[in-house]
Design goal:
Helices cover 27% and strands 29% of the residues. It is of the alpha+beta class and 75 residues long. It is flat and about 45 Å long. The N and C termini lie far apart (49 Å). The model has no long low-confidence stretch (mean pLDDT 85). InterPro entries: Fibrinogen-like_C, Fibrinogen_a/b/g_C_1.
C-alpha cells in the first residue's frame, strides 16, 4: 500500500511506532535521562528530569523511568 493513498491515521500510527522502535534501540545502549517540559495556558513553564529512561519492547512499548533528579523549581 502506498503512503500517498493511505489513511492519515495509519500514517500517524506507522510514524509513531517507527519512532518508538528508534527510541527503544537507542536506549538499549547506555544510560539516558528523560526531560519533561510543561507550559500551562498562561505561559508559565517548568521542567523535571528523570534518570533511568528507557523503553521496553513488546506488543506495546512500556516506558521506564527512575527517580526525579532535577527540577526547575517553579510551581
Amino acid at each position: 500500500m502506498s503512503c500517498i493513498n493511505s489513511d492519515p491515521i495509519e500514517k500517524f500510527e506507522l510514524l509513531f511506532i517507527s519512532g518508538l522502535k528508534y527510541i527503544y534501540e537507542m536506549t538499549t545502549h547506555g544510560s539516558y535521562q528523560l526531560r519533561v517540559d510543561i507550559v500551562n495556558s498562561s505561559g508559565s513553564s517548568e521542567y523535571e528530569v528523570y534518570e533511568g529512561f528507557s523503553l521496553q519492547h513488546g506488543t506495546n512499548y512500556t516506558l521506564n523511568v527512575g527517580s526525579r533528579i532535577r527540577s526547575d523549581g517553579s510551581k
